[in-house]
Design goal:
This protein is of the alpha+beta class. Helices cover 46% and strands 21% of the residues. The protein has 4 domains: 91-143, no CATH class; 159-184 and 396-538, no CATH class; 205-288, Pdz3 Domain (Roll); 293-380, Pdz3 Domain (Roll). Strands 3, 4, 5, 6, 7, 8 and 15 form a 7-stranded antiparallel β-sheet that branches. Strands 9, 10, 11, 12, 13 and 14 form a 6-stranded antiparallel β-sheet that branches.
């Protein structure tokens, strides 16, 4: 619906705007604390809507509310990485330029306002304006004691990490609210072992629906396709499910009745809420007890007994000659076939369309190239999703802090484990699903908006805040972690890298970040939109 789409856009803008603004606010506050001049502090980007000057800082509210930026004295632009040292000027040159500035009333105020006065002055020639700009950028600004380049190592470090710190503090607050709503219990998908702090961590098994056999159920939204290969049942009839045993107990009460169901797609963790009739005429899902340990036919070879009996892929074998057919192991059915060569029997199967059909099967004997049935098959077992259950009940007052630390630490460990598995299996899809762009975040948010799942919108905001902090602390030039790396190198070397070297590093980093971002966005767009479109027409 259009209203859901518009609401998604507004919430996404609000989330990204809040997180980026809080990040930049951290840099601003830290800079002011150590006495660094902040030339400009802006909310949003693009065209100026409102601006005012207070002290040495110009404050702006811009048209596009996607966060904000801080321009600290010495930056050539708000995202500057290259730091240039001061140039040498003679005493007479300094006196000359100072008199020029005084003559146009530009000897006081913020550096931005001085540069604006230089540019707008009708008392200066073009050559004089160029000379004054060079004097400002090459002498006044680099030598100003309020320039961050002239501060000590720990002061620079304080400003560099302040944005990340603010994102973590915001996550503390967000997760405190989220956990209080959930009763201080929440789940994380189990990907790797991790020593969680401040919480009782328990590994639990969630029931997973791997296949759907009823068309009506699929039309109601409980559908799986090539992209969504399984869903985790979260709650039934308003009751939160901790493990498969609890699911079975609830199942006996809600069978064949309309019931509210919460489930999460296993591959992308999108939460869906729906009102469904489970186990309606024609079995619905493979975790229904009557379908457990049944044979599921996968492929059917042309010309062999299974094909002649009209057995179809995804048929489930319910009975043989009227007797229930269930097996603990796949090999038990293979042994049954071996012991019944040349026999005629009736297979009662549940079709993909939910119909129960009797099919007469004439099994082959020894003289048919060893092929008895002519079909591959698997055993229908209730898959279970392994998750960490984190309980912060004994640590309520610090639950937000503890969960933020846990998420911040667990994510890279889980990401490393996914990449390791991808390398071992030579399958990049698993690793690619572990990273997402703004497009992927938007799709997740849209699902939450459609289901009016506001508590998980709060959770998503906290997760993005932690992700933003983690990304920014990486030692990559143009990011906060890159700043930490280079001011540390400067401290160890006793001097900064040359401006030329800084510029080369900045250019390479910029190309890398842009290229990586494009790849992730392209991946999310393909999976979320283009892939669905082509799958729909092919």
């Amino acid at each position: 619906m259009l209203i859901d789409f518009l609401l998604t856009i507004l919430i996404l803008i609000a989330i990204i705007g809040l997180l980026v603004f809080i990040h930049e606010l951290g840099h601003f506050i830290a800079a002011r604390i150590i006495g660094v001049e902040v030339e400009e502090f802006a909310f949003g980007f693009g065209k100026k809507l409102l601006a005012w000057e207070r002290g040495d800082t110009i404050y702006r509210i811009n048209m596009l509310p996607f966060g904000g930026y801080v321009k600290i004295l010495g930056d050539e632009d708000p995202s500057s990485f290259v730091r240039k040292g001061p140039a040498k000027f003679t005493k007479s040159e300094i006196e000359k330029y100072q008199k020029k500035l005084e003559s146009i009333g530009a000897d006081k105020g913020s550096k931005i306002s001085i540069l604006k006065k230089i540019g707008s002055s009708d008392k200066l020639t073009t050559k004089e304006k160029a000379g004054l700009r060079k004097y400002m950028f090459s002498y006044i600004i680099p030598n100003d004691p309020d320039n961050m380049d002239n501060k000590g190592y720990f002061q620079k470090l304080f400003v560099a990490v302040a944005g990340v710190t603010m994102n973590m503090i915001l996550a503390f607050v967000i997760f405190a609210v989220y956990l209080s709503i959930l009763g201080y219990k929440t789940d994380l998908v189990y990907i790797a072992d991790y020593p969680f702090v401040g919480a009782d961590a328990e590994i639990v098994q969630k029931p997973i629906v791997a296949k759907v056999y009823n068309k009506q159920l699929a039309e109601q939204g409980f559908s799986l396709d090539e992209e969504h290969y399984g869903v985790i049942i979260i709650s039934l009839d308003g009751e939160y499910i901790n493990d498969f045993d609890e699911f079975t107990a609830i199942w006996n009460r809600i069978e064949n009745k309309p019931v509210d169901v919460e489930y999460i797609f296993l591959d992308n963790m999108l939460l869906v809420k729906s009102n469904l009739v489970l186990n309606s005429p024609g079995y619905d899902i493979n975790i229904e007890p009557s379908l457990t340990d049944k044979i599921i036919f996968a492929t059917v070879e042309e010309g062999f007994p299974a094909d002649k009996a009209d057995i179809k892929p995804r048929d489930i074998l319910l009975k043989i000659d009227g007797e229930p057919a269930g097996y603990e192991k796949r090999t038990e059915f293979i042994e049954f076939l071996e012991n019944n060569k040349n026999r005629s029997m009736v297979f009662t199967v549940l079709s993909e369309d939910g119909e129960i059909i009797d099919k007469k099967v004439e099994l082959n004997g020894e003289d048919k190239d060893g092929v008895i049935l002519g079909s591959s098959f698997s055993l229908n077992k209730p898959l279970q999703g392994t998750q960490y259950r984190l309980d912060y009940s004994d640590n309520k007052y610090l639950a937000g802090v503890a969960h933020t630390i846990n998420v911040f630490g667990y994510n890279p460990v889980a990401l490393y484990n996914l990449m390791k598995i991808s390398i071992e299996t030579k399958d990049v899809e698993l690793a690619s699903q572990s990273v997402s762009s703004i497009w992927g975040v938007g799709e997740t948010l849209n699902t939450l908006v459609i289901n009016r799942d506001y508590k998980n919108i709060i959770n998503l905001t906290g997760l993005i805040s932690v992700a933003l902090a983690f990304m920014n602390i990486l030692p990559i030039p143009l990011l906060d972690g890159g700043q930490v790396l280079f001011i540390t190198l400067e401290k160890l070397r006793g001097k900064p890298l040359s401006a030329k070297t800084q510029e080369r590093i900045a250019n390479v980093a910029f190309i890398f970040l842009i290229g990586f971002s494009i790849l992730i966005i392209a991946k999310d767009v393909w999976i979320g939109f283009v892939g669905d479109f082509f799958r729909g027409i092919l």
